[in-house]
Design goal:
There is one protein chain. This protein has five helices and five strands, in the order βαβαβαβαβα. α1 (17-29) links the parallel β1 and β2. The protein is of the alpha/beta class. The chain has a single domain (16-121), classed as 3-Layer(aba) Sandwich (Rossmann fold). The chain is 40% helix and 19% strand.
Length: 127
């Protein structure tokens, strides 16, 4: 992903409402613009409208899983450069390989390492 100006547009996708709300609050405090979605179809619609710089995406969701969402996002020309971050409970090497094959750029295991997320997203206004 080319270096993005800050603040970033961040889409957080997880079927757990507490997770999406927690990250919405955190990333907003970090100075980013945040949208959330709680399932695959809503994520695709939000991504098309919001055109995020970064998508933080859970893999294990009912219905359309995060792998399928990532594959569909990568087929959207306007989102090809979007940073896709898997945030999941799946952490085996095979899971990381599956995420990479689906189009994810990064693979983080829950619970999220906030220092790693801050490094990936940055915090506008802080040095």
């Amino acid at each position: 992903m080319p270096e993005q100006p800050l603040p970033l547009r961040v889409l957080v996708v997880d079927d757990d409402l507490d997770t999406t709300e927690s990250f919405r609050i955190l990333f907003t405090l970090w100075g980013h613009h945040v949208e959330t979605a709680n399932d695959g179809p809503a994520a695709l619609a939000a991504a098309a409208a919001f055109r995020p710089d970064v998508v933080l995406l859970d893999i294990m969701m009912p219905g359309m899983d995060g792998y399928e969402v990532a594959r569909r996002l990568r087929r959207m020309p306007e989102l090809r450069e979007t940073l896709l971050i898997a945030l999941t409970g799946l952490g085996r090497p095979a899971d990381v390989a599956d995420a990479r094959a689906a189009g994810f750029d990064r693979h983080l295991v829950k619970p999220a390492d906030l220092a790693e997320l801050e490094r990936l997203l940055g915090t506008p206004g802080r040095t």
